[in-house]
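Supplementary notes for students who missed Thursday's class. We covered one full example, reproduced here. Read the sequence, then the structure, then the short commentary at the end.
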Amino acid sequence: MNAQLFTDAMSELNDKYVMEAVSYQRKTKSQTRVWLSRVACFFLVFLLTGSAILTFSVEARAVFFGWVREQADNFYHYFFEGEAAPSQPVKYELGWMPEGLEYITTLDIDNGECFIYKDAQGFLIQFSYSPNGDNRSWGVDGVGDIQKTVKVNGNKADLYISRTDDQTSSIIWTNERNDFFTISAPFDEETLIKMAENVRVKPLRYELSYVPENCIFVTSYETAGGEVYIYTDEQDTLIQFSYTSEPNKEDTYVIHEEAERIEVTVNEYPAEIFRTPSEDETDGIVWTAPETNTLFFISGHFDEDTLIRMAESVRVKPVRYELGYVPENCVFVTSYEIPGGKSFVYTDEKESLICFTYQVGADGGSFFVDNAKAEKIDVTINGCTGEISLYKDEEETDHIIWTDSTNTVLFYITGHFDQETFIKMAESVIEIE
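Structure (token representation):
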């Protein structure tokens, strides 16, 4: 991690908290603003070296679902050994946390993430995960902890309970994919296991790519594992599109008990259209995508063909990006859609054009860059490989190009900037809903 990345990451934390973590002296729980040596060490060493320090100890070289545990000096560490089966990286999140935790920041770990929280007493809590085959080494220092073997959703887990009140306990486990998880927090065994068992895949977001012309979007809101979109028409009839990946947690839809039911298919999935006996009630269609256990529902006064067309237009909401930083002299001009992505156009006081573009995976078209006459500089953007091309001819536009950690999103910025400005702009790119 370079100095700029370290500075940006550290700026997510209040300066007072960071200084207390750096200058930590052992404290008891009775004192306010307790900071943990282990978690502070974890956070600072992660930022400085890209390695993560956790709060548990392990015996030497015991195979743990492809992850090996081995002693090194005064620490033990986990690392993946052997060839990992190819798989698409998955993002995870905590589905449940104790009340009163405050989110601080998220750190990227190659294809994984580390989420940092704190509680009312100032204790740092972290949840991290890494995909199978990741080359990251996870250091541990909890040699004196009480160690137990427990289960997390049927998978073996190592639980490490601190013997003192001024240090955190932790739990570590892998899932069926061999993805690696850790939670470190000042909680008891029951709470740690509950947090671990509620780790879930971040739910996909969906949208309708087709609605009839007379439908006007009104609002949307989040529900358990999904969203609800509300539209209306010229008769002020409400139209609803909703989905959830947790269909057992709440009533996603209600069907009139006297409704006529018609079996159909939506993109080869079994579906059911229901026709209500009263014009005061709306008709609808409901179906489930079994691979994601996502239930979908559309309601409104539509005929069978329209309901099916709307249902088959449902798509994963595309990922979108934007620049978090542009130089002060740059003024936004316009943006436009391209295959698999979007381009944003800016200008400066010299009326030079600046462009930020991204394209996603197979949805993107071909991309050609003529940089044969440019000075090419290899750079790293948030841990990902990139290249800057600088031209001596002022009529040529300099640029930077890089991909994300999954190598599926290509980013491109053009403009008359120096190397430092290009990197600052590139590292400011954020994912948006």
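Commentary. The chain has a mean pLDDT of 77. The radius of gyration is 26 Å. If anything here is unclear, bring it to office hours.
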